[in-house]
Amino acid sequence: MVSMSFDWLSKQLYYVDNIRNSLEVVKISEQGLVHPDQLIHRQLLNGLRDPVAVAVHPWRGILFFAEAQRPAKIYRCNIDASGCQIIRNSTLGRPSSFAIDFAENRLCYGDTLLRTISCMNFDGTNPYVLPVDSPIPVAIAILGDELFYVHQRPYSIRRVSKRNGGTGRIVREFTGEERSVFSLKACAPANQPIPDPSVEHPCHASDCPQLCFALPNTSSSSEAQPLTKRCGCRQGKTITGNITTGKEKKENWEVIVRKEQKRCLFREFYTIFLPFLL
């Protein structure tokens, strides 16, 4: 596990695993640690090429992830990992970390091979390199008007202006065994924003039995909410109940969307008893 990003509205933690070469999600229990048998977990994507970074934007219903194997790429997907598109595949060496600038609606990323920190719009347009003096940014984070990064050789946490860059000011230096910091998170209300208090997030108080994904709403109606809900289950299970919208199949993930008494059953159970449920 090399990178994590938390959806604070659906209480789901996204992470990339560079051993399994996958993007995965796990539901965070309000009770804290749970037995592995009770863990609500799902693998969203597999077969990735050395995944190294992930970031989610719950209010946009999108996520970003990066592959470091050459040629390196940065992807934008719906928050359930559907509809993925490459938004950056040039001027990339080895992307190392993401930070979403919620105030400026930008995605920033570090590159340890090119020794740069760059930012761009969420669709990959208007990329630019932040003028920082020779960074080796293992990890980055944004807090207010400042960008913090973990610098290699010598290991330290440094900060610069997120708009103007400059020479990194050392916040903390590391020695000995401490020189193994590969992640940096900035916790502040501005990094978990509520852009419009009048708009209810569909996963904030959803009736999904296990996982909830808030996807961009493609409806052209003027009354349509910006996000729409999609329910999901832990690995190896599928939703069952009274069918209202039919069956959708995505890779090995079968989802039956139901209106009442949503339950997640093992796929084998669902397969055997489907004729009786219908």
Automatic annotation (TrEMBL):
<dbReference type="InterPro" id="IPR000033">
    <property type="entry name" value="LDLR_classB_rpt"/>
</dbReference>
<dbReference type="InterPro" id="IPR050778">
    <property type="entry name" value="Cueball_EGF_LRP_Nidogen"/>
</dbReference>
<dbReference type="InterPro" id="IPR011042">
    <property type="entry name" value="6-blade_b-propeller_TolB-like"/>
</dbReference>
<protein>
    <submittedName>
        <fullName>Uncharacterized protein</fullName>
    </submittedName>
</protein>
